[in-house]
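Students often ask what a 'structure token' actually looks like in practice. Rather than answer in the abstract, let us consider Beta/gamma crystallin 'Greek key' domain-containing protein, a protein of 190 residues. Its sequence is given first.
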Amino acid sequence: MSSYGISFDQETCVSREFTEYCPDLRDVSFNDCISSVKVIGQPWVLYEHPHCQGAQFYFEEGECRSVEWHEVISSLEQVKEDLTNPQITLYEDQNYGGRSITLNCETNLMFGNFNDMISSCRVDRGAWVLYEHPNRGGHSILVRAGREFPNIGWIDNQVSWARPLKPGRPKITDFETQSGFLFFSPYICV
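Now compare that with the structural description of the same chain:
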């Protein structure tokens, strides 16, 4: 499936299409100026600093006309994992020890026995966002299938909410006239 995004700089009315990982937006003269995003296809992650460092912002298919922390984005990457049938196992202790709970949908951990208790996880399928507070609040971290998380780092014993990223809808395109992109855009400048 093709995926693209367009980012938009409101002050200059300039949009830019991205189709692949961009570790440093300074290299394409688009650093710290993204104010809105449009994603077609798979989700994208935008980062506060170059090389996927700092605060993370997650965008699934659709438009976001006002990016939180706008004009601070310095790198971005597409989520390429298969996001269908997501599954994650959360563990109470580091190195996959202690009690565990397996999830396959967005879950509020606040009212159960796992609120602020997670120290490691295994992502069987998909890509998941773990949040510090309920309702997708507070700081967050992205965890993905195929990577090891024996210690979830700074968010250890602080997770209250978990959600899988959703796959984009498949699209059939005429590749002679159109190709896939990551779109970050649409403010309409007059």
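One point worth highlighting: The CA atoms of residues 19 and 148 lie 26 Å apart. Ask yourself how you might have guessed this from the sequence alone, and why that guess would often be unreliable.
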